[in-house]
Design brief:
heterodimer; A: 289 residues; alpha/beta; Rossmann fold; 4-stranded parallel beta sheet; 11 helices; 12 strands; 40% helix; 16% strand; B: 319 residues; mainly alpha; 76% helix; 0% strand
Chain lengths: 289, 319
């Protein structure tokens, strides 16, 4: 009994005095005196991650294009992620701002620092990074139960796919990020990791830049078995029609011009698990063609 | 003379107060007065003292610097199309700034690199135009325009090879944007000091504007005066570009507008350019950050949108 009272007392004291701490993706340790209550997410991905971490009801503002989950559409915007309306941001008196390491302008992030607004920079580059950022965000928001559960669900789902496709027949893939100028991703990009997970071999995986610009000639030379791109809802939208002119391309000859829903695959969030399942199924179809 | 200048100063003061009051959060006059006295809520103080005041002063200084530099360039080159950027200075600064952004350097180093690029461009044109043979404003102009085209090519090349996530920052820098100005003080000091330095020369500039022969005949030592004006205008432009990127239009339009209204006396035009250029950019920046808030426009867009109709109206009226 006394032990229990002591524990209760200790829990109360610690919740008053102990800081909540987490390390962000830029390597800075952030300690908050109490769990965050008023959070601003400065990238669409951060918004999605906050909701996934169970802290959606603590998000007071987002940036443009924060369209998932649907509840995020009702939140006020503080501008574009490349140009934040600092006045609107400060007027909301946030006690935590989730920034985007390479997306937000450095000058504005520095200004936030100068004004002593607690900030946590994120940019998951791996599947483990997604699970870990869910855990860290939920720690800061005091929603560990939901956040850690979601992280575990994501982790287990990816592990299961990895196990399932460990010995799958390799399929060469060209992932078209953008048609004009023609852009793709290398193996360090999360989309590249999704391809690898499903037994896909990214024909431009070894390019030095994360999102390289390439020529149509390079694609013809690589002659991938599958050409994949993101589109609204994963429906064919003509983005790959240019390749149909090259009937000697294996991907064209075998009818492997395939689409995945762009909203699933373009953000480093737990929806990547769905995206991965989708891509794996598409590559299975390509193997049968 | 003093009447028109004090009128412009009053308009400038009103513009600055307006810029302090208006924003994504509008602060009413009473609250603004409280903040000026050092009171008011913590949020209002942060908004005004930490965000709006540095930005407004930086906009004023940038506009003033560009307008004075433009007025000087127009006298120096005796060409109504001359603006602060015509000799490739903004191109050099842009190459410096974009290189620093590509290297992932911090804001302070981006500013430093922009300034270095601007000064490099200045001395490059200075050296090339100086060369052997006779020196004329036409030669300076042609050298500058060709060097500017070269910088333009380098900028396009850099934009073409830059990673996609760097592009927004680079484009906003090229369009001119006061929101990244860190501190207004260097620009304000350069503006103030150069106005004090140039005023005694204004009389000689009036003579120079009528042509070098007349100026020489009237006892003005033309060559040293021209180089002094070139270097001063370059320093002003370099400071402006370092503060806010290459904001267009102010340097071309403001001196012309003032000449249409006040006449072509450099003793009035130079200080009036400082005031009117500053006012125009303060108003433009206020619009840029409020007109479609929370979206933030680069100020360069607004200066052109405001400046073109204003200028055409004055030109039409003067006929």
């Amino acid at each position: 009994m006394i032990y229990r009272v002591f524990l209760l007392f200790f829990a109360l004291v610690s919740s008053v005095f102990a800081d909540v701490c987490a390390t962000d993706d830029a390597g800075h340790v952030l300690c908050l005196p109490t769990v965050a209550q008023r959070i601003v997410a400065l990238s669409p991905g951060a918004t999605e991650l906050m909701f996934a971490a169970g802290a959606g009801n603590k998000v007071v503002a987002v940036v443009d294009y924060s369209d998932y989950p649907p509840a995020a559409l009702n939140l006020p915007s503080v501008g574009n992620y490349t140009r934040i309306d600092m006045e609107a941001l400060l007027a909301l008196r946030p006690d935590l701002v989730i920034t985007w390491v390479t997306g937000n302008p450095p000058a504005q992030v520095e200004l936030l620092k100068a004004l002593d607004v607690p900030q946590f920079a994120i940019e998951p580059r791996t599947f483990e990074g997604v699970s870990s950022v869910l855990e860290r965000l939920s720690t800061l928001a005091g929603t560990e139960q939901q956040g850690f559960a979601e992280a575990e669900r994501f982790h287990a789902g990816i592990a299961a796919l990895s196990e399932q496709y460990r010995n799958a027949e390799p399929v060469s893939v060209f992932y078209q990020v953008w048609a004009q100028p023609l852009m793709t991703i290398n193996n360090d990009h999360l989309i590249g990791k999704v391809l690898q997970l499903c037994g896909g071999v990214n024909v431009f995986g070894d390019m030095p830049r994360l999102v390289p610009r390439i020529s149509a000639e390079a694609v013809l030379e690589a002659d991938p078995l599958v050409i994949l791109t993101g589109s609204v809802g994963g429906v064919s939208d003509g983005q790959l029609d240019r390749w149909k002119n090259y009937s000697r391309l294996k991907a064209v000859a075998r009818n492997n011009l395939l689409f995945v829903p762009a909203s699933l695959i373009s953000r480093p969030t737990p929806r990547l698990l769905e995206a991965s399942k989708y891509v794996c199924q598409k590559l299975d179809i390509a193997r049968e063609h | 003379m003093t009447r028109s200048l004090s009128g412009l100063a009053a308009i400038a003061l009103i513009a600055v107060l307006l810029a302090l009051a208006i924003g994504s959060v509008t602060i009413l006059s009473l609250e603004l007065w409280q903040v000026i006295q050092g009171e008011g809520s913590a949020l209002n103080r942060t908004l005004i003292v930490d965000l709006r005041l540095p930005r407004t002063l930086a906009a004023f200084a940038t506009g003033g610097l560009l307008a004075v530099a433009g007025a000087l360039m127009q006298v120096l080159l005796r060409n109504p199309l001359a603006d602060p950027y015509i000799l490739g200075l903004s191109g050099g600064a842009a190459v410096g700034a974009l290189l620093a952004m590509l290297a992932g350097l911090g804001t302070l180093l981006i500013s430093g690199s922009a300034f270095a690029g601007a000064m490099l461009a200045t001395f490059l044109v200075f050296g090339l135009a100086h060369g052997t043979g006779s020196w004329t404003p036409t030669r300076l102009l042609l050298t500058g325009v060709v060097v500017a085209a070269g910088w333009g090519a380098v900028i396009t090349l850099m934009l073409a090879v830059s990673p996609a996530d760097q592009l927004p920052g680079m484009l906003y820098w090229l369009m001119g944007d006061v929101s990244y100005a860190r501190t207004p003080w260097p620009a304000l000091v350069v503006l103030g000091v150069s106005i004090v330095l140039i005023m005694p020369l204004a009389r000689n500039l009036n003579v120079l504007a009528r042509g070098p022969m007349q100026a020489a005949a009237l006892g003005v030592s033309v060559r040293p005066l021209e180089w002094a004006v070139y270097l001063l205008a370059s320093l002003l432009t370099a400071t402006a570009v370092t503060t806010a990127g290459s904001v267009g239009f102010v340097g071309l339009i403001v001196p012309h507008m003032l000449r249409l209204v006040l006449g072509n006396d450099q003793r009035i035009i130079l200080p009036a350019s400082a005031l009117a250029g500053g006012t125009l950019l303060v108003l433009a920046d206020t619009l840029a950050r409020t007109v479609i808030a929370p979206e933030q426009l680069p100020v360069g867009v607004i200066t052109a949108l405001l400046g073109v109709p204003m200028f055409l109206y004055l030109l039409h009226r003067s006929r």
